[in-house]
Amino acid sequence: MLPLMGVILLPLSIFFWGKPERLLQMVIVAGIFPAAAVLSLGGICLQPTLAPGLSFLSYIMLQKILGARYPAQQDVRTLCSAMVFNGVWAVFASQAMPRIFHNKVLVWPQKVDAAGTQSLLAPSFGNITQDAYLIVNVILMVFAAQYVTRSQIKIASFFNAFMLTCWLLVGICVWQFLARTIHVPPFPRELFYSNTGWAVLDGQTAGPLPRINASFTEPSACASYLCGVVFTCLWLTLKGYKVKGMRPLIWASTLALCLTTSTTGFASVAIGLMLLPFLVVVTGSARLLGRIGQLAMIGGVILGMMMVTVVTFVPSVVTAAQTVAESTADKKQSASYKERSQADADAMTVFRETYGLGAGWGSNRSSSLAAGLLASVGVIGVIALLVFDWKLVMAAGAALRAQPHSDESLVIEGFLASIFGRVVAAMLSAPTIGMPDFYVMIGIVIGAIARVRLAQRVDKRLLAIPATR
């Protein structure tokens, strides 16, 4: 079966097969359509990001078979090594741990195997499917990083594609809000929700207000992505980057985030704002303090004007906002919060009962990222991820000092802010981050760092050449 999203993306993926740069941009854009499918075979649905992603991988693999080499490949290997090790360990553990601890540990299985209750650990189809996704994502990250090290690639074009994607998501949020409140224009569910493997929660309400999930499976998933958008726009604005449409996007994405009424989104933004002073100290950018105050004043004025307008012309919104605030404050008393907390507690039990090795990738499903990683890849995989994160952040800092406010710096800071926002949200309410666009963003950041390192080596060689008359 070929869903409507497949009718759009599959021909484009084939058409741009010889243009890997366009395929990577398509992966970024398709990242906001996780509830759709480009191909449906029985109960297996191909995610929209995988259409351009697999097309990109096939092109790069063919190029490598023909002997193609990319600049700064060694830098890419060094930066990716810990993530590659984590991937290898995760695949090994997914096959070994369910057999070593067979019938000895209770786990929450993946959705495809779920029966609504915990079950004894055993090898399952979830191990295979999750391994396949992980392998594709890691290879996609490495190949994307290698490809963008080419000097003729305009690396800022990937961030421009991300900005377009952000505005597109905001538009979809407003579209769904209008469709659910005034029923105009009609919302195309068949386009956005064609993945039969997911349960789409698009009918939720918070008091009199509809909860918006846009093109995602649920409001919290949409809010998690929007957190990355808010973090990116806010951070780049504070750092003084001039990107067209970025400042309005701060307020537009914040509005879209409010439409989701997601506690995850509100809490993630609050955590980000609390971390801002720490980031100012770490980056050593004293000028950020002034910009933070300036942005806060502008935001206060805009917020005040909006509140006065809303209270005057739409007073019912005040009651709705009070309902949302009360439901957010009482979140810990809700059944969903208790279920998620129990899932995380069960994940930590799995971690302890497997002696810190984990139950294997794809064996257990938790509610938050940290508990999910500990229960699946164990302490070995988590340490590998922490090493990867540390090396990436240190290398990014060095690259930003070497080429401040360059295109590479824009991509590094912009994508890292988005990645950070999505990770913070996942720490609160997502078992994993398995979308290919997330890994492509990491790969582009690594490629940008490698480009800076390569440029530094070239400059050193030029300086070492003795002057001749």
From TrEMBL:
The chain crosses the membrane at residues 28-57, 78-97, 132-149, 161-179, 221-238, 250-283, 295-318, 369-388, 436-454. The keyword Zinc does not apply. Keywords: Membrane, Transmembrane, Transmembrane helix. It comes from the Bacteria. This is Uncharacterized protein. It comes from Acetobacter conturbans. The lineage of its organism: Bacteria, Pseudomonadati, Pseudomonadota, Alphaproteobacteria, Acetobacterales.
